[in-house]
Specification:
Length: 446
């Protein structure tokens, strides 16, 4: 481990990438602290304190606290992720043949797909910014103190433009980190926003113990649960189903090649935490739409129904996670392609004929391990929030936050290790290490 860290410092190119990544995250955190003019900070803080367990508080976690300050980065990367979801669904369902043709055109086609995603991000950012601005200005506050004392048309225009520009800047910043830094830029931005809350969450727990609102035994039990969740996430994230592959022997001239045994590794949780991020992004869409009619009685009832912590909300959230786990695997892994590549290289799975039989077996295995991984991710995302709402257990960091933090940390460490191994340094981990490739869904097409 120490030799690996020394290798990071010694390699100039790798050192520049890490410094660039840290600098980009610092820029993002500075922007998240700059509020939009004309906002009453005390009234806004009262709203988020009253709705700490609601969907607004949930979205505030993913914006790194920027939403609670109503800063220039309040929208975060959610519009970018929503645009990527829409593009992925259109490609996966083969709705538009034009998108399929672009995907098959190679690098040039992927660049065009990235451009379409960016334009769609711009539209969604403007739409969601307008909905968020209306919600903030009309949302009731304790004491009936207005968040915006004079919400004129000019205020709406400037606020929407500022929030939209902030989202586009974060999108560009994330792409620069992916290209010039270490790790996936979008995921690291979300990671930085969640990690920023850990010191305050720790202090809140200490204050509750000092005020004797919770016992020391209960605080230790909560800490043990958090450590258990982290350990289980690491275990599942690194778990693999290894399918044995046998390569036939070939005689070339006087030499014999092949005959070796290998395996095809299929990860239990292939999607990582991208399924969770996609689910959270989609959950924010109904909230945005309802803000345009929040004065209507039906919209008020719908907002009350869409309350985080209720069993139907959690059930829908878990269903979305499971869906996106399967969807990601269907997009990223093609059993027929794996079988064809295996056949071309002279490999086969013992007991199965090369070709269709091998593809069906790989698909059969993939569907079953994906179910286990999806159920685990859904349970980790939902259970801490249900315990907090039903038994009033103060989990300041939910299962979703822990999943993202651990998943991004593992992915970034894997990429760092891959960079070190490429330069003939020993990695951070010994045998059985995590693969160096990024497993994040490539929302930027890079």
């Amino acid at each position: 481990m120490i030799k690996g860290l020394a290798g990071v410092v010694e390699v100039a190119e790798l050192r520049k990438k890490i410094l660039f990544t840290l600098g980009a995250i610092a820029v993002y955190r500075v922007g998240a602290a700059i509020p939009i003019p004309g906002i009453n900070g005390d009234a806004l803080a009262a709203i988020f304190n009253a709705q700490r367990g609601g969907i607004l508080g949930f979205l505030n976690i993913f914006s790194g606290g920027a939403l609670a300050r109503f800063s220039i980065f309040s929208m975060g990367v959610m519009p970018y992720i929503n645009a990527s979801i829409i593009m992925s669904l259109l490609q996966g369902a083969h709705v538009l043949p034009y998108l399929d043709r672009l995907y098959k055109e190679g690098e040039l086609g992927r660049r065009k797909l990235n451009s379409i995603t960016r334009y769609l991000t711009l539209f969604l950012a403007a739409f969601q910014s307008f909905g968020l601005t209306i919600a903030i200005t009309k949302m009731p506050t304790p004491g009936n103190i207005p968040v915006v004392s004079n919400p004129t048309a000019g205020f709406y225009m400037i606020t929407v433009l500022t929030l939209t520009a902030g989202t586009i800047f974060i999108m560009w910043l994330g792409e620069q980190v992916t290209e010039l830094g270490i790790g996936n830029g979008v995921s690291l931005i979300i990671f930085a926003g969640i990690v920023e809350r850990i010191p305050s969450a720790t202090m809140n727990m200490v204050k509750l113990v000092q005020a004797e609102e919770i016992s020391i035994l209960k605080a230790v039990a909560i800490l043990a649960v958090v450590l258990g969740v982290v350990a289980s996430v690491v275990w599942v994230e690194t778990a693999q189903r290894k399918i044995p592959v046998q390569y036939a022997k070939r005689v070339v001239g006087r030499k014999m090649y092949g005959g070796a045994q290998s395996y095809l590794p299929l990860k239990v949780d292939q999607s990582g935490v991208i399924a969770v991020i996609f689910a959270v992004s989609l959950l924010a869409v109904p909230l945005t739409v309802l803000q345009f009619a929040q004065d209507k009685p039906w919209a008020v009832k719908a907002l009350q129904f869409w309350t985080r912590g209720s069993w139907y909300y959690q059930l829908f959230y878990a269903g979305l996670i499971i869906f996106f786990c399967y969807f990601y695997n269907s997009v990223s892994i093609n059993p027929m392609d794996l079988a064809d590549n295996m056949k071309k290289s002279g490999g086969f799975i013992p007991g199965y004929r090369p070709g269709d039989s091998t593809a069906r077996y790989i698909e059969w295995v993939l569907e079953r391990i994906t179910l286990g991984g999806a159920l685990f991710v859904a349970a980790i995302s939902v259970l801490p929030d249900m315990l907090r709402s039903q038994f009033n257990i103060p989990f300041f960091l939910g299962g979703t936050s822990l999943l993202i933090v651990v998943g991004v940390a593992l992915d970034t460490m894997g990429q760092l290790e891959a960079q070190l191994i490429m330069r003939h340094y020993e990695g951070f981990l010994k045998k059985g290490r995590i693969g160096g490739g990024s497993r994040w869904f490539n929302v930027g097409g890079r």
